[in-house]
Amino acid sequence: MMKIDRYRCGYCGACVTVCPTEAMNLIGMWIEIKDDECDSCKACVNICPVGALELESI
What we know:
By secondary structure, this protein is an alpha+beta fold. Helices cover 17% and strands 21% of the residues.
């Protein structure tokens, strides 16, 4: 499950553009993550310029 630090996130949308499963959407100033579509590839984690994303272990 992907976790967003909303205090760090600048809502640039970089994570949304690299998501291969289109599990992320930028809606205004909010990133939506569809957990059931995320395959935990960490492409979004790797591209985030402010380190606002992390893969949360269950």
